[in-house]
Design brief:
476 residues; mainly beta; 22-stranded parallel β-sheet; 12-stranded parallel β-sheet
């Protein structure tokens, strides 16, 4: 969002004027940008630009309609439902809606399950304007376009929000977006949401976005895929957990799906124990420091160029006779480096480039069973498993975490004069000398002893006198 924008006048789109019934017909709204810094400041008096709900305005919708220069809608703890708190329409303005007292204090109940369409809000933005939602719990929407609809363009930040029990009547459960948005979803929870009967995404359907960033989110116990991106420039899933999600209505729902998207990047994430495919689509993809395991519909399947680094792909399942489980490339190139992949579950119809540190073996998880995708297992690696505790020939930990369980105890391993903490089996495979379980690396532990030649004192003096003066360490 821009900072310090001059006050602007924006008129709601003509074709939507007759459709808005729940927000008062004040289409010319004066709004100033709200910077992210302003959201971090302590609560300010109402006169300084915060619209207080319900102290000043009885509903969220009435506060939105009254937005002025440098205003933020600050919502007090409570449950907000009924007319004025759902089906809100917001035009191309800068606006922020925040829970005044932080996460878990404001719940917006759309009260939808079937019948009339009910969602939280629709934002019709434009490039140069933006929407911020922070620390809100949004639940029980029932709408074709999910709990939140974004259309037009601009920047949208959804931070610390909790999406629960939302249902898509045809398309998506939580979020629908179309247009050149820069969209970030950070620190959010998606639980028990359900996709619709058409495309079946429980989390989000995004098309035409400039960038989509999902970071530090928890996606669990939904019905349908998590996110479907089409014709986007960049989709990022960073340090997120996507587990225990069931089939959609059509018994399909790739957890991270993409079509004609320039690049999809998955980093530091766990995608496991889902009833369908973990990652798939049409476009280029890069997977780094992630674990993709125990998905009943397979691991990664795509048409495009794939790079896998520092990751674990293993233990996924597909129906009998499909021929692949963990990785399927229909065309393009696949480059793998410093990763653990079960080669018996690979099917590559393209160029395969294997870099350093690749272990083609089944990883040893702490607890996992293919096909038993509910509840999720423990997808840390056992000590001594390929990729754990430096067993990768790259010397790196691989997968979404460096935590391990069970197996051999870790101790100091001398590799020449260098010392590393490894399990005994990893130390042996690296050609090192294992000092002992629980031992620590300390200075000089692995230093090689200095050779000693036994001589009498007279012999030492004779040897010293025979040296050229320039080679004597001390002089008489």
């Amino acid at each position: 969002m821009s900072v310090g924008r001059a006050t602007c006048l924006r008129v709601f789109p003509r074709h939507l004027r007759d459709t808005a019934t729940l927000v008062p017909a004040v289409w010319a709204v004066r709004v100033a940008s709200v910077s992210f810094l302003s959201l971090m400041l302590p609560p300010m008096p109402a006169s300084a630009g915060r619209l207080l709900v319900p102290e000043q305005y009885p509903s969220i919708g009435s506060a939105v309609a009254a937005l002025g220069e440098r205003d933020t809608v600050s919502i007090a703890p409570g449950i907000y439902s009924g007319e004025g708190n759902r089906n809100l329409l917001i035009g191309a303005i800068d606006v922020a809606l925040i829970a005044r007292d932080g996460p878990g204090t404001v719940e917006i109940d759309c009260e939808g399950s079937s019948g009339p369409s009910r969602q939280f809000l629709a934002y019709f933005g434009n490039v140069g304007f933006g929407l911020v939602l922070r620390d809100l719990t949004i639940r029980n929407s029932w709408h074709q376009y999910g709990a939140i609809r974004l259309q037009g363009g601009g920047s949208v930040s959804i931070i610390g929000c909790d999406f629960r029990d939302n249902r898509g009547s045809t398309d998506v459960g939580c979020l629908w977006s179309r247009g050149p948005f820069d969209l970030e979803i950070v620190g959010c929870t998606f639980e028990n949401n359900r996709g619709g009967t058409h495309r079946g995404a429980a989390g989000a359907i995004v098309s035409g976005a400039s960038t989509v960033r999902v970071e530090q989110c928890s996606v669990r116990a939904n019905r349908g895929g998590f996110i479907l991106a089409s014709e986007c420039e960049l989709l990022e899933v960073i340090e997120s957990t996507i587990v225990d999600n069931d089939f959609g209505v059509w018994e399909s729902g790739t957890m991270v799906g993409f079509h004609f998207t320039d690049m999809t990047a998955i980093r530091g994430s766990l995608i496991a124990s889902n009833s369908d495919e973990a990652v798939g689509g049409l476009g280029n993809c890069r997977i780094e420091d992630s674990t993709i395991a125990d998905n009943a519909g397979g691991g990664v399947a795509l048409i495009g160029d794939l790079t896998v680094r520092g990751s674990v792909l293993g233990g996924n399942c597909t129906p009998e006779g499909s021929g692949w489980r963990d990785l399927k490339l229909l065309s393009g190139s696949c480059e793998i480096e410093c990763s653990v992949i079960d080669s018996t579950g690979m099917e590559i119809d393209g160029e395969l480039v294997v870099g350093e540190g690749v272990v083609f073996a089944a990883p040893s998880y702490c607890e996992a069973a293919c096909g038993s995708f509910l509840p999720a297992g423990d997808y840390r690696l056992q000590v001594g498993s390929p990729g754990a505790n430096g067993c990768s020939t790259c010397g790196d930990f691989v997968g979404y975490t460096d935590e391990t369980c069970g197996g051999d105890s870790v101790g100091a391993c001398c590799l020449g004069s260098d010392c590393e903490l490894l399990s005994e089996s990893c130390c042996a495979s690296a050609g090192g000398e294992f000092v002992g379980s629980g031992s620590a690396c300390s200075p000089f532990l692995c230093d090689q002893p200095v050779p000693v030649e036994r001589r009498t004192w007279g012999g030492v003096k004779s040897r010293w006198r025979g040296l050229p003066p320039g080679e004597r360490l001390i002089e008489e």
